[in-house]
Each structure stands twice: as structure tokens, then as C-alpha cells.
Amino acid sequence: MKRFFKVIIIAGLLWFLSHTILITIDGLANNLGQCDVGIVLGNKVELDGTPSQRLQGRLDKAAELYKDKYFQYIIVSGGTGKEGFDEAKVMKNYLVKAGIPENVIIEDSHGVDTFMTAKNSKVIMDRNNFQSAMVITQYYHITRTTLAMHKVGINKVYSAHATTFELRDLYSLTREFIGYYMYLLIK
């Protein structure tokens, strides 16, 4: 019996390690392509109302890809965090200051989590006759975000990761392992 539990624990650890490596490889390998819209997932806004370093990385990547003509529109999606700021509005203001025309940025202030961002993006895309999208987030978040987009019916999904890396990414990789299977099995 003791040996059985040891085998189960080792198998679980190997599964976790393998999946985490795959999430990392998938997230770091940008899947770029021409599409209708870029979707930037929200993240923390600092107490002074500016995007966190993580969120700036996502927005900078979106601005770069927009200027390189990968997409013509950008959806900025996020909720109101505990700091009291509407992430979508902060994101839009940041992009406008970065030279992105205001009229190509679509706000989703109800994207309180990855799945809500996917659902809301699908509604926005249907309303605008968009057929394809590129998700822009941290590398560890790409796999689950792409899964969420597919689950709501967005079938042509490209991806790009922000180029900011933090020690916190180790925690985030662990959370993504659990989150991926929750989305796969429950959502």
C-alpha cells in the first residue's frame, strides 16, 4: 500500500512537471498571425492608477503588434480591482498615450477573470463581425486563455506573450496547472 501511494505521488509530480513545461513552451512560442482583433487581458492597476509592470508588458506588446499591423482593433478586458480602478479604462488610456488611436480600442470592463474575458470578447467579436483574435497576456497564461477562447466559440486564436518576467511567475505556473484543468473539465 505504501508503495502504491509513492507511485501515485511520483506520477502526480511528473504530470505536474510535464504540464508546466508544456505551458511554458506554449506560452513562450508566440503564435503570430494576421487577425481581426487583439485581446489584452487585464491585470493589477497600482494605487496611483497606473498599470502594474505585468500589465504594462501586455499593453506594450499589444501596441507593438498593432503598429506591426497584426490586427486593426484591440479589446482591453478587465474588471475593477481592489485598488478601485477600472482596468479596461486604465489600459485604454495607456494605449492611447502609446499612440494607438482611441477609436480602435474597445473596452470590456466586465472581464473579471479569464473566462469572462473570453465570453465578453466573443460577444464583441460577433457584434463587429470579427472572425479571428490574438490573445496577449503573460506566457504562463496563454494556454488557459486559448482554451477559454475555444470554449466560447472563438476558433481562430493566435497568441503573444508580454516580455516581462518575475519571480512570481513560479506561483503563477502552479496556479495555471490547476486553472487549466478546471477550465477543461468545468467551464
Give the gist of this structure.
The protein is of the alpha/beta class.
Q: What structural keywords apply?
A:
globular, Rossmann fold, 187 residues, alpha/beta
Order of helices and strands: HEHEHEHEHEH
What is the mean pLDDT? 95
- Strand tally: 5
**What CATH first level would be assigned?**
Alpha Beta
Biggest sheet: strands side by side, in what order? 3-2-1-4-5
The CATH architecture can be named as 3-Layer(aba) Sandwich
In DSSP terms (H or I, runs of 4 or more residues), the helix count works out at: 6
Structural category is alpha/beta
The span between the termini is 35 Å
- Uncertain runs are none
Number of domains: 1
The radius of gyration over CA amounts to 17 Å
How would the global form be characterised?
Answer: globular
CATH topology: Rossmann fold
Helix content, binned percent: 40-55%
What is the H level of CATH, i.e. the homologous superfamily? HUPs
Protein name: DUF218 domain-containing protein
Domain DUF218: 36-179
Organism: Dehalobacter restrictus (strain DSM 9455 / PER-K23)
InterPro entries: Cell_Envelope_Assoc, DUF218, Rossmann-like_a/b/a_fold
